[in-house]
Amino acid sequence: MSLDFQHHMLVRQEHLNQYGSLFGGAVLAMIDELAFIACTRTYPGRNFLTRAVLDAEFRAPAYLGDMLEFNFGIEHTGKTSAHVRVEMLIHEAEGGKPVRSFDGTVVMVCVDAHGEPTRVHG
Amino acid sequence: MSLDFQHHMLVRQEHLNQYGSLFGGAVLAMIDELAFIACTRTYPGRNFLTRAVLDAEFRAPAYLGDMLEFNFGIEHTGKTSAHVRVEMLIHEAEGGKPVRSFDGTVVMVCVDAHGEPTRVHG
Amino acid sequence: MSLDFQHHMLVRQEHLNQYGSLFGGAVLAMIDELAFIACTRTYPGRNFLTRAVLDAEFRAPAYLGDMLEFNFGIEHTGKTSAHVRVEMLIHEAEGGKPVRSFDGTVVMVCVDAHGEPTRVHG
Amino acid sequence: MSLDFQHHMLVRQEHLNQYGSLFGGAVLAMIDELAFIACTRTYPGRNFLTRAVLDAEFRAPAYLGDMLEFNFGIEHTGKTSAHVRVEMLIHEAEGGKPVRSFDGTVVMVCVDAHGEPTRVHG
Amino acid sequence: MSLDFQHHMLVRQEHLNQYGSLFGGAVLAMIDELAFIACTRTYPGRNFLTRAVLDAEFRAPAYLGDMLEFNFGIEHTGKTSAHVRVEMLIHEAEGGKPVRSFDGTVVMVCVDAHGEPTRVHG
Amino acid sequence: MSLDFQHHMLVRQEHLNQYGSLFGGAVLAMIDELAFIACTRTYPGRNFLTRAVLDAEFRAPAYLGDMLEFNFGIEHTGKTSAHVRVEMLIHEAEGGKPVRSFDGTVVMVCVDAHGEPTRVHG
């Protein structure tokens, strides 16, 4: 497994709940997009749909102005699916050691033009 | 368990990938918001953070113009956390029998003003 | 008349004006989507466009963290149009009795492929 | 009455329903923001909340790539409220005569720090 | 040169960084849309792509509740391109003299159906 | 100069104009956020505002489903400002050699609590 890709996101007002911490949903939407990118970059010309989310855990909350660093990549490729691992670190605007905030795995299934599962390695 | 709450969403252009099917991320962002609402409606005055996503499975893809119906509610309440079950049906614009498209469970943890876990039933 | 459908929305930072209260526009955009859903769910295979907004009144302001509950449904169906009634309640995060915040009626016209009005009951 | 202010908006993919025409909700959200701007520009230092929408009528549908031109301004000022008139024209990307698409009036109420109605002319 | 068009925007929570001032990106996204509108309104039936941003300078920061007034128009038209000038003023909610906040020029290139540059005046 | 940071973005329906190509504004909004992240990650505890955009050129259009790869980093640091270089590549979903699509420089100014320029290296 290697987390080949990197992504950044700034925590803005629109990502916060009324207590001032990051909504989990903002992260969940992002990991789905990253999983799609990892699969398509690794297997160009293939179409992938989200199949499941595994082991998604939020370990530390993020706040306004925090910079999120995502590291992600293909963890495992099966016959008709791929597992994408996503790990997220928080870098606070004030500096200091980054904190592990979230990790999880997105299972993407490779589908043909009719939406039916098909081999990743055609 | 009872899925006491209902929610609706229309699949729009902005929710689609380039093959015309709904991004999983749009659903994942939504279930997080619904889980937050279910917990706060059930336990007013309590603050909840997303802790994990369990058993999230996408069973059938949705397309432009489909109407998504979410049914959700508290599945189980522990000492410092609550499990929210979310099930999603697709109603096609053309009519016909609704299709089960997604289900999963969001684990929300009840936190105090310092972000530390605290009892749901104070 | 029966308000058959229910919808939820959490008031987030992005919905607020600089005085901290909910923009009316966020509600107006939502009721249009709900009116579309009510018509299409009730009359599958029909295409509807927004024709007018009637009696839309904001009765009490909402604030950050409030949970909005929409109840909506077909109020009346004419030859080529349908009236959708939408009522909105505020549930405060702190609990307490819900407050009636908004109600109004959206007139949707049923149109054919050329955008011309056509009979709802074909 | 004079429609002193002008505003533009391009119809993009995200504003369309599955039949390719503009959602009314996109217009309704916009007129609320414009009403707020008209009141605050005309009566600086005053806080306004949306009170009602009057006579909002959609007269012609807009499509992808159309350019919307809004003309808006204070129509009437009462003791504690102001009526903002908004008219919307469609300019098609291909050119041709602009088409009247929407008009309506937003009633804004002037409120004090407690959200209570107060005189516009203090 | 004449800045024929006017546009308005209210600074909302979602446009702010963690220090409470407007993100430049919100302005940059807006001037691109305005440049597209200015070109298409002036040369209907022509397709334009963004080619470059020139002399874009942020002169004074904007804050929550400020009302942004954009004045924009075609500055110069070349053989296959057009320069759109955009100037932005801040009107504070409290009133007072408007402040010049941003100005810049967007170069738009006129393209044919294959994305190749073509004459503006066909 | 080194472009230390990497970022990804998928071109979705909401980023397209009516001819199906990516709006420049979506890229411009993104480079501003990336410039902010580059400065804050490199100089933690400092506040930066966008001052200008230099040499921003769009070299090749992107389309639906393209994956954008941004490489960015501090190009130069002055007394009270930093120049952030951003380069963008297109990876098509079908595969093939990536294409240089955009590059430019964002000038960020380091400001104190009053919004006045201050030394980057305090």
Protein architecture, described:
- The structure is a homohexamer of 122-residue chains.
- With 122 residues, chain A is α+β, with helices and mostly antiparallel strands.
- Helix content of chain A is 16%, strand content 43%.
- Chain A has 1 helix and 5 strands.
- Chain A has a 5-stranded antiparallel sheet, covered by helices on one side.
- Chain A is elongated, with a radius of gyration of 16 Å.
- Chain A starts with a strand and ends in an 11-residue tail after the last strand.
- The mean pLDDT of chain A is 94.
- Chains in contact: A-B, A-C, A-E, A-F, B-C, B-D, B-F, C-D, C-E, D-E, D-F, E-F.
- Chains A and B meet through helix 1 and strand 2 of A and helix 1 and strand 2 of B.
- Strand 2 (47-58) of chain A pairs antiparallel with strand 2 (47-58) of chain B.
What's the structural blueprint in terms of helices and strands?
The structure is a homohexamer of 122-residue chains.
Chain A: E1 5-10, H1 24-42, E2 47-58, E3 67-77, E4 81-91, E5 99-111
Antiparallel strand pairs in A: 1-3, 2-5, 3-4, 4-5
Descriptive tags:
5 strands, five-stranded antiparallel sheet, 122 residues, homohexamer, 1 helix, alpha+beta
